[in-house]
From TrEMBL:
SUPFAM superfamilies: Lipoxigenase. The gene is Nfu_g_1_016919. It comes from Nothobranchius korthausae. One of its GO terms (molecular function) is oxidoreductase activity, acting on single donors with incorporation of molecular oxygen, incorporation of two atoms of oxygen. This is Lipoxygenase domain-containing protein. InterPro entries: LipOase_C (IPR013819), LipOase_C_sf (IPR036226). Residues 1-69 form the Lipoxygenase domain.
Length: 69
């Protein structure tokens, strides 16, 4: 499994999975805004606690194919 090298690769994944979802489009449009960062912190999705992993834990219900760019 290779890591994403750019946000454009992540946008490609998003285009296939979330483009038809109103909430996903809203998040895509606002995720860089300070107010949205604060909203996430206050509502349980604290971006400060998110970190990159180098190995997928064996008990994670996600396959390597799902994480591939």
């Amino acid at each position: 499994t290779q890591a994403w090298t750019s946000f454009s690769e992540l946008e490609t994944v998003f285009a296939h999975s979330g483009n038809q979802n109103n909430i996903a489009r809203f998040v895509k449009a606002n995720w860089k805004e300070d107010w949205y960062f604060g909203y996430q912190c206050l509502n349980g999705c604290n971006p400060l606690l998110i970190h990159q992993i180098s190995l997928v834990p064996p008990n994670l219900a996600v396959t390597s194919d799902m994480l591939r760019p």
